Amino acid sequence: MQKRNIYDFTIEEWKSWLKEHQEQGYRAEQIYQWLYVNRVDSIDEMSNLPQSLRAKIAEEFEFQALHTLTEHRSQDGTVKFLFQLHDGHAIETVIMKHNYGNSVCVTTQVGCRMGCTFCASTLGGVARNLTPGEIVAQVVESQKLLDRTGERVSSIVVMGSGEPFDNYDATIQFIKIVNEDKGLKIGQRHITVSTSGIVPRIYDFADLKWQVGFAVSLHAPNEELRTRLMPINKKYPIKELMEACHYYINTTKRRITFEYALMGNVNDQDEHARELAKLIQGMKCHVNLIPVNYVPERVYTRTPRNQIFRFKKILEDSNINVTIRREQGGDIEAACGQLRAKHMDLEFRL
């Protein structure tokens, strides 16, 4: 029997599992304490559980360890892990240090099927989805590193490699687990999920009425350009995407962040800024401008600094709330997919 990842369950699911195995429900809180507070590495370490219960857990669950292939540290404090999964695949996780705390960027898929032409994550397509436990384990491993200096994970962004809404059920389960008060206690307002625009899932996510932050990777203000940059626009064009975004705002009463990667002479001209302002005018939203990361396999170049600020001012003149993302980890290739792509290329050449 294929054993499950021990991080896969919510506390309520542990209670149900315990009941099915004629065990007391309160043991679920003890299990969560060992997993997320004591952060043990084996079932045998759960010393206040009866040996018989530990044996039952071991029959069905295992610690599917994330093996650290590389751990890169930036001058700005950013840490990027390349983890190897139990089946040999590699994924990336990033710890970003801010003045308000430590944020962990987690991956939801091995690779990505979205095919965005400016992103390293899509190189080689998608190999498989991660389980909820494999996403949770990234946060646990990050917290173990921070334990050395007495710090904690204060926020999570689900913006690593892969499309979270292409692995929707696992992403939702992950949020429930890390949000649990008996475990990691990451509040919903300290979690942000990003999507490239899988429209049906935006409606599903809105209907949850959670307090989780929500971001949409937009990157273009019109259908023709967005389709060229992001193939998903063929299936879910901007018109449908905007309708879903309006539904999200009206249903949750929360704002959306539109991610917009600026690419030199592609989507960064004055007319693009004016088009973008018109597209989102009046919406409860915020625009995050992202100077594009250089990816050797891609052809895009970074927008000049003066044009970035010009683009920002055009949006601000239209009363759009806008910021420029502070670059972190540039010296350690911290952009999504860069380390994994290099690792895959090395394996291929070997």
UniProtKB/TrEMBL annotation:
Protein name: Probable dual-specificity RNA methyltransferase RlmN
Entries under Gene3D superfamilies matching the protein: 1.10.150.530, Aldolase class I
Enzyme Commission number(s): 2.1.1.192
Family: Belongs to the radical SAM superfamily. RlmN family.
Gene: rlmN
Annotated catalysed reactions: adenosine(37) in tRNA + 2 reduced [2Fe-2S]-[ferredoxin] + 2 S-adenosyl-L-methionine = 2-methyladenosine(37) in tRNA + 5'-deoxyadenosine + L-methionine + 2 oxidized [2Fe-2S]-[ferredoxin] + S-adenosyl-L-homocysteine; adenosine(2503) in 23S rRNA + 2 reduced [2Fe-2S]-[ferredoxin] + 2 S-adenosyl-L-methionine = 2-methyladenosine(2503) in 23S rRNA + 5'-deoxyadenosine + L-methionine + 2 oxidized [2Fe-2S]-[ferredoxin] + S-adenosyl-L-homocysteine
Other observations noted: Reaction proceeds by a ping-pong mechanism involving intermediate methylation of a conserved cysteine residue.
Binding, [4Fe-4S] cluster: 112, 116, 119
Role description: Specifically methylates position 2 of adenine 2503 in 23S rRNA and position 2 of adenine 37 in tRNAs.
